[in-house]
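This part of the workshop introduces the protein records we will be handling. An example says more than a description, so a record of this kind follows:
>
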Amino acid sequence: MEQVDECQSPLFLATEVDGGTVHLFFSAPPESPTTRGFAGILHTGLDGLPVADVLAVPDDAPYRFGLAEAVSPLRLRGMVAMLSRIKRQVRAHAA
């Protein structure tokens, strides 16, 4: 698993591509509900999708979710970093 250093709480993620389908795995401590919530949003939205669909997600998607009013820019930066790592890992698996 790869650590996402931009997250305020320790978060690790890994991706697998099986038959062109993306599977996501996250690990974050229970005392990090916001980070776990962001990971859950990405997992729900991306896990099980074809590679092309995951790679087509706009890099700024977390800013489009309307969370900016509820969380700090630093928190959103962490979610953008999660998405970036996911896409980078998927590209590596697909190559």
The mean pLDDT is 93.
